[in-house]
Design brief:
The structure is a single chain. The chain has 179 residues and is an all-alpha fold. It has one domain. The chain contains nine helices and no strands. It is elongated and about 65 Å long.
């Protein structure tokens, strides 16, 4: 049995991709560099959503109010906690699917800015939890997302193509293979 005979449910494009010479993979990765950023955006959105869920359902010593001592009143701490949870939950989902991507990333930036410069900065680099390094990385990736935008694997791009009545890259490949 040949290697491709067991691929009954796979599309023709998928079969063609599986038949590729492995030496072509670096060129394929270079020619589709935008996909790398798409995967980062999706992962970042999922990670922020999960972080929002942790803050939402956290039991025990509340991590948000412990950091809110510098904010001031209890009302300000509660408002900040609600902002963080809402930004991470809604913004994370929006980043993951690519809906209003720049706005979703922009809403996250104040949260991460405070986390980096006011919460974790005194811990210093190379602390046991590495909170400063990870928060700074997420802040950097959010800034890149604001500058770059959503990309082709997003609801934003799909809506833009629909409004202009264009074909998706997958539809163009399919019609090219039929001709």
């Amino acid at each position: 049995m040949r290697a491709t005979e067991h691929l009954n449910g796979v599309t023709d494009a998928g079969k063609a991709a599986m038949k590729r010479d492995p030496r072509e993979i670096p060129a394929l990765l270079v020619s589709n560099r935008d996909i790398h950023f798409e995967l980062l955006r999706i992962y970042l959105g999922i990670a922020l959503f999960v972080r929002g869920m942790v803050f939402f359902v956290y039991e025990g010593d509340d991590p948000l109010f412990g950091y809110g001592d510098s904010v001031g009143t209890l009302f300000a701490q509660g408002a900040w906690a609600h902002y963080i949870i809402g930004a991470h939950l809604a913004g994370g989902l929006m980043l993951a699917v690519g809906l209003l991507t720049r706005i979703a990333a922009l809403v996250q930036i104040p949260v991460l800015f405070v986390a980096v410069f006011f919460v974790h900065f005194q811990e210093g680099l190379f602390a046991a939890g590495q909170n400063l390094e990870l928060s700074a990385l997420v802040l950097f990736l959010l800034i890149l997302t604001v500058l770059h935008g959503s990309g082709r694997w997003s609801v934003d791009a799909w809506m833009d193509r629909t409004n202009r009545n264009e074909k998706s890259p997958e539809q163009e490949l399919k019609s090219a293979n039929q001709n």
